[in-house]
Amino acid sequence: xxxxxxxxxxxxxxxxxxxxxxxxxxxxxxxxxxxxxxxxxxxxxxxxxxxxxxxxxxxxxxxxxxxxxxxxxxxxxxxxxxxxxxxxxxxxxxxxxxxxxxxxxxxxxxxxxxxxxxxxxxxxxxxxxxxxxxxxxxxxxxxxxxxxxxxxxxxxxxxxxxxxxxxxxxxxxxxxxxxxxxxxxxxxxxxxxxxxxxxxxxxxxxxxxxxxxxxxxxxxxxxxxxxxxxxxxxxxxxxxxxxxxxxxxxxxxxxxxxxxxxxxxxxxxxxxxxxxxxxxxxxxxxxxxxxxxxxxxxxxxxxxxxxxxxxxxxxxxxxxxxxxxxxxxxxxxxxxxxxxxxxxxxxxxxxxxxxxxxxx
Length: 360
Known about the structure:
CATH architecture of the largest domain: 2-Layer Sandwich
CATH class of the largest domain: Alpha Beta
Oligomer: single chain
């Protein structure tokens, strides 16, 4: 057997023994690479006589081509074997249950749900949604709303004050959404019919209060607005929101700096069982405050109280969510507990509507 035949036999044996593409690549480098055995043989052609080159040249080129073809053929075999091995080890068990769709497992937070419900109700009644900044000036949060100097709500124990600015003015985290009433009256001529859902901040925290909570303000200003309109609006809202056919409401005299007269609103309920049932029973529960807009507030908004009058109300969104959906404690609303969200959350994309139902 000639030297070339011996070399070819050894290389072909290495190619057949290569178990994967990495081993096959190593064989290619050691034979056809710059320092490979076949390449070294090709370099000897320059030292041969013309007669020897005529014999050895074709022989070495043929060897090189046969080895390259053998490597290509073996590479296809190795690839096919690798695919078959992966199919055997990485197969999918089609009998396993399909992973749940994120749309089915995701949940809408009850606060977002209740805000959507409120928006659906008041939009149907012709109200617009208004918004304002969470960080307010003392003027918009207190003075323009007829809070006199020295009023307890201005004190540190109730309000979050920010550090004074370069002018010595101390801004506050708004204690209610009422400042938006002033901002709306300053920029919009009556008739005004708005609701203002948003975050508010007070230094209070227990099972039914939190330092940050959500509130809904309502404001109607026109030339002929009266308490009868206020009562009808609140009654229709409560019946629709709590999804009852009828509900008795009790309006009690109270005091708020920004309304005169001021009224606390109680709703009929039954506390005899393990849950509070609205629209039945002989008990009463306070749910909101309301009243006719104070003339000083109208003046602060740039309106003449001899021409215009209005009514306003405020309700805690967190607390009516607790009341409607039977949540005993306010604190889990802000704890991001997945178990609580799974239990009390709502399905996404089921937007509440008056015709489709609010509690979907």
